[in-house]
Design goal:
CATH superfamily of one domain: DD-peptidase/beta-lactamase superfamily
InterPro entries: Beta-lactam/transpept, Beta-lactam/transpept-like, PBPA_dimer, PCN-bd_Tpept
Helix content: 25-40%
Structural class: alpha+beta
CATH class of one domain: Alpha Beta
Radius of gyration: 26 Å
Shape: globular
Number of helices: 18
CATH architecture of one domain: 3-Layer(aba) Sandwich
Organism: Gulosibacter molinativorax
Protein name: Penicillin-binding protein 2
Largest sheet: 6 strands, mixed
Pfam families: PBP_dimer_2, Transpeptidase
């Protein structure tokens, strides 16, 4: 009998310890994550007792809370909802929160550590509790230019200052109206939410920083060129072989330049400068094989591939394959094909790092955080993510990209009186599938800098007839002009 009692006692003690351990882990370790989770409706409902802080663009609210007389007390309102949805996201009592509404929830709801004394003072002064205001870095003219230029076609634009990291534009289309998810009619909100997630155009995906990413095509040549220059394999003017076609080792499938069956320039030899200027595939496929996939991957990861970026929303990591590749597949990655996938955020960071002399700056949407009494809690934050390439390599790439715009295949990015540097891409998605169209580049005028990346899915509505220069470069040009106030 005593043995059975001991066994029961040991089992009960083990069960108690397991329960104690799990509850302790949840309360003390997982607590911050659970509170911040946008699906935690209990936290959301409690937060409606506080007037949620506004999200601002150039001092004007694009998201704010107003009293509505219901049991929720406050209704979230979005101005220009579709234009700014990739930035604000939505805040819903039964569908959680996304984008800045989720990432900055503690500040907007007044529960951040930095707002402790403000909340404490409100208890003694009788002030209505309120969250902090988030002033974004968004340039309203650039955001509107990006939205207008996309014309609702599946695609996205990301533009930022490569010297400070301030994000000027982040547009994604098709989009949606967050107001349809912020109302307090639960049945209607659920109906609206289900309609959005079942929409085949995927309007709730922020294509600028994630989603079903696209192959970069020729814009990835910037990464390969950077790796080749850094490794000392070539200089900008080194002579390279210039065949009409080239078959990589290990395959019978030849690589051609975009102008199928033609050389890269008129001579028997070409150069890296000419190859980038005219976006020739063969030299980059050959350089990729010469470099090997490990060195290309290392350069891609130095630029940010295979890692998430917090802006403060977490981006989906752009992808360079992590498995060992044979020469045939490595050759395809040399011009941004095979399993390479990326976002406009990532390609803007590649261009921006080149513009900034090789130093990569963390992109951010946050200009400053202010208490309800307009006291600044946090000002602009400039954070270096490290030196990716040398100043010499950045200068060489800038010259090539500027020639690509001035005299090459990115001509639609030209702006009178401005030296625009750019690179286009027209990426294949499979047999008979529409292309993904790309542009990335940068410019500076009177001390104002901007780097931009554009992607259009489904060939921009033109199937396999659209090109990166024909559509994406034009959009990039319009966004650059808006930032530079031209």
């Amino acid at each position: 009998m005593s043995r059975n009692i001991r066994v029961v006692g040991i089992v009960l003690l083990a069960m108690f310890l397991a329960l104690f351990g799990s509850s302790t882990y949840i309360q003390f370790v997982q607590e911050p994550e659970l509170v911040a989770d946008g699906r935690n409706t209990r936290t959301l409902l409690a937060s409606y007792e506080v007037q949620r802080g506004p999200i601002l663009v150039d001092g004007n609210p694009i998201a704010y809370s107003e009293a509505d007389g219901s049991s929720y007390m406050y209704q979230r309102v979005y101005t220009d909802g579709e234009v700014y949805a990739p930035i604000t996201g939505y805040y819903s009592a039964n569908q959680g929160a996304t984008q800045l509404e989720e990432a900055m929830n503690a500040e907007l709801s007044g529960t951040a550590d930095s707002q402790f004394f403000t909340s404490l003072r409100a208890l003694f002064t009788g002030e209505e509790p309120a969250g902090a205001a988030i002033e974004t870095t968004i340039n309203p003219a650039a955001q509107q230019a990006a939205w207008d230029a996309l014309e609702g076609r599946p695609g996205a634009v990301f533009a930022y200052n490569p010297e400070t990291g301030a994000i000027y534009a982040m547009a994604s289309t098709p989009s949606y109206d967050p107001n349809t998810l912020a109302m307090h009619d639960d049945a209607t909100v659920i109906e609206n939410y289900n309609a959005l997630i079942n929409d085949p155009s995927n309007p709730m995906i922020n294509r600028a920083i994630g989603g079903n990413m696209n192959p970069p095509g020729s814009v990835f040549k910037l990464v390969v060129a950077a790796a080749a220059l850094e490794e000392g394999i070539v200089t900008a003017d080194s002579e390279l072989d210039n065949p009409e076609s080239w078959t990589p080792p290990g395959t019978t499938k030849p690589v051609y330049n975009p102008n199928h069956g033609q050389k890269c320039g008129s001579g028997e030899k070409t150069t890296l400068h000419i190859a980038l200027q005219y976006s020739c595939n063969i030299p980059f496929a050959q350089l990729a094989v010469q470099l090997g996939d490990e060195k290309i991957r290392a350069m891609a990861e130095a630029f940010g591939f295979n890692s998430s970026v917090s802006i403060p929303m977490e981006s989906d990591p752009s992808v360079y394959p992590t498995e060992d590749l044979d020469d045939a597949f490595t050759a395809q990655t040399g011009f941004g094909q095979f399993e390479v996938r990326t976002t406009p955020l990532q390609m803007a960071m590649v261009a921006g790092t080149i513009a900034n002399g090789g130093d990569m700056i963390q992109p951010t949407l946050i200009e400053q955080i202010m208490t309800p009494s307009l006291q600044v809690v946090q000002g602009p934050q400039v954070e270096s993510m490290g030196t990716v390439i040398s100043q010499e390599t950045a200068t060489a790439l800038t010259s090539m990209m500027q020639d690509s715009v001035a005299n090459g295949v990115a001509s639609n990015a030209q702006i009178a009186g401005v030296d625009v540097a750019g690179k286009t891409g027209t990426a294949e998605n499979g047999e008979g599938e529409p292309y993904s169209l790309w542009f990335t580049g940068f410019a500076e005028l009177d001390g104002q800098q901007v780097a931009v990346a554009v992607v259009l899915e489904d060939g921009g509505g033109m199937g396999q007839s659209g090109t990166g220069n024909g559509l994406a470069a034009t959009i990039g040009q319009q966004v650059i002009k808006a930032v530079l106030e031209l």
